[in-house]
């Protein structure tokens, strides 16, 4: 947990959820809200996962207020793992909480690994409700492992070249019919060991409209 992180709890459908909120620096009001979803709870995934924390820091740097929760059965969050269905419900409750707390701000969704499934499903729900997310950032996208919903064309997809948990080819196969580019980090494994800085650099550049053109596309 960052020194600046503020703990909070939120009632969920399976019990109390444990969360963290991080505010952007300075006195300017936040430009938006970003929700971060962590990797698989049954394999050690928590809201303090280093990729989830990197996403949080990236959005804080972009001027967003960022919220994370521990999924069911993780840390102080109550309940048991629900294979992504209940977790999507819980992320939806976090969305409601944050939009009530910060009304009128756009909401970005980001996730890592299992968290990409949750956020793709939440993005689908929001779009169907007429309140689409501002934009998505999916890192280590869990293609083929879970049935991800299709995502908007401006979604930022980042994947490691040497990911042996979710093969890069599976991400290409998922992204190709949607015609969404995949930004590939050379030499990166699933957890982006020693490559975390690339996530922050590229999300920031693409979010701000940077025109860098490297990596591979599906």
How would you sum up this structure, described in words?
The radius of gyration is 16 Å and the shape is globular. The longest helix has 17 residues, at 85-101. It has a single domain, classed as Alpha/Beta hydrolase fold, catalytic domain (Rossmann fold, 3-Layer(aba) Sandwich). By secondary structure, the chain is of the alpha/beta class. Helix 1 runs parallel beside helix 5 (196-207) and helix 2 (85-101) crosses helix 3 (114-128). The chain has helices at residues 50-61, 85-101, 114-128, 168-175, 196-207; strands spanning 6-12, 15-22, 32-37, 64-69, 107-112, 136-139, 156-160, 183-185.
Coarse shape:
globular
The succession of helices and strands, N to C, reads: EEEHEHEHEEHEH
Count of helical regions: 5
C-alpha termini separation: 35 Å
What is the CATH C level class, in words? Alpha Beta
How do the strands line up in the largest sheet? 1-2-4-3-5-6-7-8
Count of structural domains: 1
Question: How many strands in all?
Answer: 8
Rg (C-alpha, Å): 16 Å
Classified in CATH, the superfamily is Alpha/Beta hydrolase fold, catalytic domain
Gross CATH architecture: 3-Layer(aba) Sandwich
Q: Which class of secondary structure composition applies to the elements?
A: alpha/beta
User: Segments where pLDDT lies below 50 for 5+ residues?
Assistant: 210-218
Oligomeric category: single chain
Provide mean pLDDT, rounded: 92
Q: What percent strand?
A: 15-25%
The biggest beta sheet is recorded as:
8 strands, mixed
